[in-house]
Amino acid sequence: VLIAIGRDACTRNIGLETIGVNINEKNGKVPVNDEEQTNVPYVYAIGDILDGKLELTPVAIQAGKLLARRLYGGSSIKCDYINVPTTVFTPLEYGCCGLAEEKAIEEYGKQNLEVYHSLFWPLEWTVPGRDNNTCYAKIICNKHDNNRVVGFHVLGPNAGEVTQGFAAAIKCGLTKELLDETIGIHPTCAEVFTTMDITKASGQDITQRGC
């Protein structure tokens, strides 16, 4: 049983209405612009209280550091709320970075994207004979931006470790060509991202028959 209850935004009794700060009446969260500024110019909000942003501690820490540097250190760097490596630590881990396929289609249009995907069989699953078509890898590429990777998704063992490594590459503008030019470490789960050649649009079979 997976219980994901989330967090409650306790904003209704701290005096925000006194100074005119808007909140989302449905969830109590605070809408902000891309600099974490509320509708009241001298009031900022960061972390889980933000409306429509990720409820992740590392995101709040990063946003807080960058906000302090903009306010008092002369910086102009804003927090990137898109390319955030995230993992669900279920028994079979799921990791992602960037956009979900549905969100990417909404933002770029289906015709402008190429989605590569593959099932894979982790080495440690071969001896006990576990299902060789349970783990899954997918990247979403923007065809009109040099096939830049805008979405990264992996379902398999140690997905968190895999995603953390690829997240740095995505921040650097990772493309499908760069992935293809990267030599994989055999036999690892992450290797699958260096050999992907089947697109969803092709309709080809992605089932695996060996490791």
Automatic annotation (TrEMBL):
Keywords: Disulfide bond, FAD, Flavoprotein, NADP, Oxidoreductase, Redox-active center
GO cellular-component term (any): cytosol
Ranges where the FAD/NAD(P)-binding domain occurs: 1-64
Keyword Lyase: no
GO biological process: cell redox homeostasis; cellular response to oxidative stress; glutathione metabolic process
Molecular functions (GO terms): flavin adenine dinucleotide binding; glutathione-disulfide reductase (NADPH) activity
UniProt cross-references to PANTHER family, sorted A to Z: GLUTATHIONE REDUCTASE, THIOREDOXIN-DISULFIDE REDUCTASE
Protein name (Swiss-Prot/TrEMBL): TRXR3 reductase
Source organism per UniProt: Pedionomus torquatus (Plains-wanderer)
Gene: Txnrd3
